[in-house]
Amino acid sequence: MNGFLRWAWGVACVCLLAAGLAATGPVCAAAAEYKAEYKLSVVPGATSGWGLTAARFAELVHERTNGRINIKVYPSSQLLAGKQTSEFLMLHNGAIDFALASPINWSPQIKELNLTALPFFIGSQPNRYKAIDAITAGKSGAMLVAAAEKKGVKIIGWGENGFREMTTSKGPITSPEDMRGLKIRVVGSPIFIDTFRALGANPVNMNWGEATTGFQQGVVDGQENPTNGINIPLKIWDYHKFHCDWHYVIDPLLLGVNPKVWKSFSPEDQKILLSCAKEMETYSKALSRLGMDDGASKAYLEKIGKLPEVTDPYACLEQHGMTVTKLTPEQMAAFYKATKPVRDDWTAKIGPDLVKAAEQDMAAAR
After folding, report:
1. What three-state secondary structure class fits 37?
2. Residue of 194, 103, 193 whose CA lies nearest to 145
3. Confidence class of residue 298 from pLDDT cuts 50, 70 and 90?
4. Is 221 within 8 Å of 184 (Cβ atoms)?
5. What are the phi and psi torsion angles at 125 (to 5°)?
6. Going by C-beta distance under 8 Å and a sequence separation of 6 or more, which residues neighbour residue 13?
7. How many CB atoms lie within 10 A of CB 139?
8. What is the percent of the chain with per-residue pLDDT over 90, rounded to a whole number?
9. Would the pLDDT of 316 be above 80?
């Protein structure tokens, strides 16, 4: 009897072990398909609003997947060998897993992404934040996502780097005439070069390291970047004493993922990633708009315990010796008129249907 019991017990254990392996096998296999680390590319530094937004996304994903998906942020173009415009192709080819990107840097491959760089197209609207929100949530935003995905990158969310404002070392900017002859550091995108030439300035394409040296030596007179996202973290007052709030273009951000990487995630984890991207969007916009909206951004950041040290950007600039100029509607109209040829030319390049859809989205939000 004892021998029979020992035999039966052994059979039972083998069966239980086999059942356990069968139950856990698919889970182990699924876990094995996930990488130990996923790389997320960001062009500016970790302390920029852009960099903080990427870190927030990675943090949310780690928490909500219980560590199944670990994303490491690589700021300051670490993965791009200094060439920002190579990011889309590297993401497409799988050298990068995720990227939180500006349309500026992807526009060489996707011409439609120049939409938000049409000068004074969005910033001249009665409520510029409602206007960009209407685009990213509307038909035109869907068209931008479709254009990027057609070229081979999955888009899972939006962010925001902010409206790009002007800073100079040579007097306040209040009219297009004030721009004449100024050497302005710009990104290398053709639409930016066309815009500044239309205003009579001399646009100079250079990386940021070269630009700061150029500012110090007086080789370059000014630059344009978002206030909260870039100018304050970079302490632009070390180089310039004049700030012009002209909202001429905006940097919405696209959260992209390599399609093969996206397909490797389970449906449940894909849903989690999308929910994290949505919360990241809210956080990103709050950072960008802090001190510039009706107070909603500050309230949100306080609620989640992520309020930055600087909550009043204009006071911060003035405290560091900068003269802040906010254009009147009449002054804005003068810049809008001066750049009309650029908008007309680039509307044809971007696609009239896309521009019309954006106009309709913005009109519906007024």
Report:
1. coil
2. 103
3. very high
4. yes
5. -70, 155
6. none
7. 16
8. 85
9. yes
Look at residues 212, 242, 252, 324 and name the one whose alpha carbon lies nearest to residue 105.
252
Cα-flanking dihedrals φ and ψ of residue 202, to 5°?
A: -115, 95
Report residue 9 as tokens: 């017990």
**137, exposed or middle or buried, with CB in 10 Å at 0-12, 13-18, 19+?**
middle
Least Cα distance to 166 among 247, 285, 252, 45 occurs for 247
**Two tokens, residue 195:** 């815009």
pLDDT of residue 158: 98
Structure tokens at 356: 């019309």
- Cβ neighbours of residue 127 closer than 8 Å, sequence gap 6 or more: 365, 366
**How far apart (Å, rounded) are the C-alpha atoms in residues 262 and 121?**
34
**Mean pLDDT, residues 6-25:** 42
Residue 225 pairs with which residues in a beta bridge?
165
Is residue 206 very low, low, confident or very high in pLDDT (cuts 50, 70, 90)? confident
CA distances, 23 to each of 9, 19, 133, 267, 269 (Å): 21, 6, 46, 19, 20
DSSP state of 127: S
Axis crossing angle, helix 352-364 with helix 128-137, rounded to the nearest 10 = 120
Q: Tell me how many degrees the CA angle 119-125-126 measures, rounded to the nearest 5.
A: 155
Total-model pTM:
0.89
CB 123 within 8 A of CB 247: yes
Tokens of 336: 């809008």
Measured in whole angstroms, how far is the alpha carbon of residue 341 from the centre of its chain?
27
CA separation for the pair 69, 66 (Å, rounded): 8
Would you say 280 and 157 are in contact if contact means Cβ atoms under 8 Å apart? yes
How far apart CA 146 and CA 132 sit, in angstroms, is 18
